[in-house]
Amino acid sequence: MFIYNVTTHVDWSIAEEWLKWMKDEHIPEVTATGCFETGRILRLMEVDETDGPTYAVQYSAASKADYNRYISLYAEGMRKKVFEKWGERTIAFRSLMELVY
């Protein structure tokens, strides 16, 4: 299994709305691509939240091919939607992890 992790720092001014949007719209849209089996949101703890909370959104893919399909067909469009909606009020970085044990 592969985990596509998107860690996002969210400005306090949009934190509640962003979280609701992620749960109700964005994660369902990403999983509807068929590339991921599940999506979940985790809040980072013991980090500086002066400017806002930080979340890790993790999507589970059954195979590297599923992840690659998402990156080649959908990732750019999804990132564009996020930027159009939230602009620079979020900062994200992405990583891919493989479940080992």
From TrEMBL:
Pfam families: DUF4286
Domain of life: Bacteria
Listed name of the protein: DUF4286 domain-containing protein
Source organism of the structure: Flavihumibacter stibioxidans
